[in-house]
Give the backbone structure.
Amino acid sequence: MDIIKNILFLILGMPFLYFGGEGLVKASSRLARSLGINPVVIGLTIVAFGTSLPELSPSIVAAYRKEHDIVVGNIIGSNIFNIGILGFVSIIRPINVNSSVLKYELPVMILFALSAIPIMKTGFKVSRLEGIFFLIFYLLFVIFLF
């Protein structure tokens, strides 16, 4: 009975997901145009925050319960899945990438990913100080976007 209930919730939730995504993209595009901001910046900040927010709650709960593997798996899995989404979307319609993304945002993303390797190798633990480093690094990235 639970399986049928879950499938029903999934089917009923899909239109909300579609229209919510549609609304997020339209509102973000209008916001970028009205403020004269590059849409890439809106995508890297507001849209990224909105799509990552659902991951924050389970990660906080998992960290509180000392389920560290869940937190790391959630973060790494999300990033890998997002790359898969890029591939899936480009099959539907090829994506033009702004050259500025290749010069600034992409290298920063790679730097973020590479900076996690030594931190995780040193005792396989991300300390509070290292967490603060990641947060400050992200905030500086966002500030430089504007």
